[in-house]
Design brief:
Blueprint (H helix, E strand, L loop, with lengths): L1 H55 L5 H18 L10 H5 L2 H5 L1
Length: about 100
């Protein structure tokens, strides 16, 4: 009888832990979903600048590429009210934290 009560107590604690963990995951997922919804709007301008960079400026020097993207193109995108990230960083679009850490 005592063994059954101990087992029920242990399983009860595990169930509570799983429930709390599940609730925390749901909250985190909801926050991630809200962030993705906000970032989705900015994706148009970010991808426009990123695609232009990949297709056009690869053959030029770093200084020329940097000025072209961050001075000329970014200003043009902002003047035309195309939504993009503020501050815009090309590295955020083309890489991720795992690639940068290598």
């Amino acid at each position: 009888m005592t063994t059954k009560l101990i087992n029920i107590g242990i399983y009860g604690l595990e169930n509570k832990r799983l429930t709390i963990f599940s609730m925390l995951c749901v909250v985190r997922w909801q926050q991630d979903l809200e962030n993705l919804k906000k970032d989705r709007v900015k994706l148009v301008g970010d991808c426009l600048l990123g695609a232009g960079f990949l297709c056009y400026v690869g053959a030029f020097s770093w200084e020329f590429r940097h000025n072209l993207v961050y001075t000329d193109w970014l200003k043009n995108v902002q003047d035309k009210d195309i939504p993009c990230s503020d501050p815009y960083k090309l590295e955020d679009l083309l890489t991720n934290d795992v690639e940068v850490s290598r």
